[in-house]
Amino acid sequence: MIVTLAGHVDHGKTSLVKALTGVDTDVLEDERHRGLTIDLGFAYQRQDGDVLGFIDVPGHHRFIHNMVAGVAAMQFALLVVDAGDGPMPQTREHLQILTLTGVGRGLVALTKCDRAPAGRIEQAEVEVRAFLQGTFLENAPIFRTSASTGAGIPELKQALWAAADASPAAQAQGQFRLAVDRAFNIQGAGLVATGTVHAGAVRQGDEVHIFPTNQTARVRGLRVQEATADRAALGDRAAINLAGVSLDDIQRGCWLTAAPMPACRNFAVDLRILDDFPRPVKHWLPVHIYHATSHSTGRLALLDPGKALPGERRTVEIIADEPLSARHSDHLVLRDHGLDRTLGGGRVLTDLAPAVRRRDPARLSRVEAFKADDRTRIVAGLLGQGPLAMDRLQNTLGLTGEELEELLSGFELKMQNGEAMPQALWSDWRRTALEFAAQHQRENPSAPGFAPNRLPSAIPNRFQLPLLNELLSEKRLQLTAGAYHLPIHVAELPPQQKALFNRVRPRLDQDQAPSLGDLSKAMQTPLAPLESGLKSLAQRGLLVQISPKRFYLPERLTAIAATVATLANQEPLTVRRFRDHTGIGRNIAIELLEYFDRRGYTRRHGDARTVVGELKLR
């Protein structure tokens, strides 16, 4: 169990840790010189193979960013209050930050009891009890301690170990994420990054990514709670020896993640404004944003009209100046830029794409879906709004591939190009497409069909071609000269084209179709208008042009292709074999086979050909 100490400056947090563990967590020269904790300090105690870890955070308000960096939701709080002073301003702010970051368990240590009279100690306990009313420490036991005499230390230590024994076992769910609080080089080992594991697990040999650059590194070695380990999981304090990157590539505020993370700056947050915040919160307020060990300045945008009042919960958008590695249910702490005090904090709902219309109904509906109390309901709400990008969902919820698959298993979905949608929605789109094809045919009887981009706007453009191709494969639609139509639809030809087709069809109804020149002579028709007319018929799909001067009936080409397939299955297909078997002249046989090559039906290997695909005349 990891214990985070919190409390006002000079209330004895560092001395208490030393009394509990024997470790002085003030390691910086400036800290020892000034007698003031500036950065995070760490200490550990072992008992029967178990470990208690302590994080000593700065109490001075000037170092509040370092205090926030030491807190994680899965930790245990030890609130430290000087018996002589009682609760002070930073006691209140530290308790607020513990609450805002999701910490829900803890104890209280009344320190320096050797320096206070008995009556003052009694009064201090009353003050603390009143101070803790309505907080997660409301019923927490209070231990009277003295780091100087050792009074109360064994009892406090015993209570901490009992709390550790009662702590629920952390389940290493989700993609691995570690918030880096320190990075340094060790001679002989190389780069080491330390921090708290916020999700998932990591093992020696794993590849990790460094947010925000997404550089990759390899885990060379691991220490968990200051002991060599082969695995670090949710809640652990871990030191990770990294290969493939340098100290210049990583610092406090970076994250180690199992998968690359997008550089998001916009987030929807379920914000709780502190009761004692001294003024209403206005739209576009400058704020400091704290997320685990990360810090950024930014703006607070209200998604509901009107000012937000102290004590309210509001859904807001946070626009950070620097990218944050925040995922659903992560906690943010916000401080007012001008007042230099904590404004509030809350739970991240989802990342957001920047938008011109911040309060666009579709955008707000997506945010609303993430307010559901479990992931299944979140997914159900999102699917009710349309197609859902799987990579974005997985990243926002921080899921492994297996967890995402399990989450989606309860839904009847259609997957298309990395997006999921209800099968019922896809079926509706299919019906819409077929109804549109029928309507188009009724209204345009002379047209060959419609282009793929002409489907109703209810079907998003990116899904129109895949949907049409599916209907083609099922023979619910046909494609003729680039136009889609119902199988029963034959375009009504203008009289002139109909007459031409009736004249030319008998002459082309043979395996060795005549050339354009021969047709012109036989039909006593000038070459140029004949060629123009035949090309027009080809555009309607009634003819197929296999070479500049030769046209075929589609059904003849299909029959010839079947013959090619039969010959190719017996032995290598050459021009000579094809010519001899069909009786088609050599030059025309070459034209046909080269046409099949261009259409991807056959492939040439020297003098021979093989069939490699299906014949698509258009």
Describe this structure in words.
The chain is α+β, with helices and mostly antiparallel strands and 618 residues long. The chain has five domains: 2-166, P-loop containing nucleotide triphosphate hydrolases (Rossmann fold); 177-257, Translation factors (Elongation Factor Tu (Ef-tu), domain 3, Beta Barrel), CATH 2.40.30; 372-411; 424-485, Arc Repressor Mutant, subunit A; 494-618, Winged helix-like DNA-binding domain superfamily/Winged helix DNA-binding domain (Arc Repressor Mutant, subunit A, Orthogonal Bundle). It is built from 18 helices and 31 strands. It has a six-stranded mixed β-sheet, with helices on both faces. Strands 7-8-14-11-10-15 form a six-stranded antiparallel β-barrel. Strands 16-19-18-17-20-21 form a six-stranded antiparallel β-barrel. Strand 4 (76-82), helix 4 and strand 5 form a beta-alpha-beta unit. The longest helix is centred in the C-terminal third of the chain and has 21 residues, at 423-443.
Topology, element by element:
Blueprint: E1 2-7, H1 13-21, H2 29-34, E2 41-47, E3 50-56, H3 64-69, E4 76-82, H4 89-100, E5 106-111, H5 118-132, E6 142-144, H6 153-166, E7 177-186, E8 190-199, E9 201-203, E10 207-211, E11 215-224, E12 227-229, E13 231-233, E14 237-243, E15 255-257, E16 264-273, E17 285-291, E18 294-302, E19 313-324, E20 331-336, E21 341-351, H7 361-369, H8 375-383, E22 388-389, H9 390-397, H10 401-408, E23 413-416, E24 419-422, H11 423-443, H12 461-473, E25 478-480, E26 483-485, H13 495-508, H14 516-523, H15 527-539, E27 544-547, E28 550-552, H16 554-570, E29 573-574, H17 575-582, H18 586-598, E30 602-605, E31 608-611
Parallel strand pairs: 1-3, 1-4, 4-5, 5-6
Antiparallel strand pairs: 2-3, 7-8, 7-15, 8-14, 9-13, 10-11, 10-15, 11-12, 11-14, 16-19, 16-21, 17-18, 17-20, 18-19, 20-21, 22-24, 23-24, 25-26, 27-28, 29-31, 30-31
